[in-house]
Write a structure and sequence with these properties.
P-loop_NTPase, PPK2-rel_1, alpha/beta, kinase, kinase activity, Rossmann fold, Polyphosphate_phosphotransfera, 6-stranded mixed sheet, 6 strands, globular
């Protein structure tokens, strides 16, 4: 599997319609059993890489998951991160900003949540909501204390362009400081979203997942597609490209993400810390004392 086929690094025009939402033809022969077995192997490799990442305490990993409602973000995080050490791992779900968060600059709550050295942090939604939900509902910006933005009519393309620039600069800064930024867009079709919403209504054990707000936001489907397209086109860079994941098939999407994460970590010079001669002498002394007693 060539994961590069699903990565947009900012070169050439980006149009969402050119990217598949379903399993590409080349991979349709994969059975669910084969996919689950492959994911299990990927997770085992991730566990080993995480151990080195944590011990080395030099690099860290930030995984950002974005997608329409019902795109599978929660399930993706649950399956791909299963089995890794909770120590050194954090999952953060960004909801509607609180009054305290609105009193800070718009990047504050995500910026302070970036991972410390040696850790893996997962963002379920992220700072990209500030150019997605806010773009579809620009009235939200009136609560953010932005100089010069007092009416919806004050919101122009220039504001979004400034935010795209902020994102690029913040992610480049993070990269220079050892934070590997991986951004995943779970690309779901409108038809598959409808199917998943119906499942949430018709299956009692899934009723808790259903939200009337999701149906309301579905009415803005085209607006969200445009917002995602513009955001991805303007924030994909060589250091922090967007990974466009066909999300209509949940298991294939999970397989693709697990392989992408493993490949990125394999590219890092990860290793367990080298024990110095002085430390070895200390170990030997401790061994002799323990053996004597």
């Amino acid at each position: 599997m060539d994961v590069n086929d699903f990565i947009y690094a900012g070169k050439g025009d980006f149009k969402l319609k050119d990217w598949a939402t379903d399993v590409p033809k080349a991979y349709r022969d994969l059975s669910q059993a084969d996919i689950k077995a492959s994911i299990a192997k990927d997770i085992a490799e991730l566990v080993q890489d995480q151990a080195m990442l944590y011990a080395q305490n030099e690099y860290s990993l930030l995984l950002i998951f974005q997608g329409m409602d019902a795109a599978g973000k929660d399930g993706m995080i649950r399956h791909v991160m299963t089995g890794i050490n909770p120590q050194g791992t954090e999952v953060i779900s960004f909801k509607q900003p609180s009054l305290d968060e609105l009193d800070h600059d718009y990047l504050w709550r995500t910026r302070v949540a970036f991972p410390r050295a040696g850790n893996i942090t997962v963002f379920n939604r992220s700072h990209y909501e500030e150019v997605l939900v806010d773009r579809v509902h620009p009235e939200n910006l009136l609560k953010e204390h932005i100089p010069g933005i007092r009416r919806v009519e004050d919101v122009t393309q220039d504001l979004w362009n400034r935010r795209y620039k902020d994102f690029r600069q913040m992610e480049n800064y993070a990269t220079r400081n050892g934070i590997v930024v991986m951004k995943f867009f779970l690309h779901l079709s409108k038809g598959e979203q409808k199917k998943r919403f119906l499942d949430r209504i018709n299956q009692p054990d899934k009723n808790w997942k259903f939200s009337a707000a999701d149906i309301k936001e579905r009415r803005y489907w085209d607006d969200y597609q445009h917002a995602y397209e513009d955001a991805i086109a303007n924030t994909s860079t060589a250091n922090a490209p967007w990974h466009i994941i066909p999300a209509d098939n949940k298991w294939f999407a999970r397989l693709l993400v697990s392989k992408m994460i493993d490949k990125r970590l394999d590219d890092l010079p990860l290793a367990f810390p080298t024990v110095t001669a002085e430390q070895k002498a200390g170990l030997q002394a401790a061994l002799e004392e323990l053996t004597d007693k």
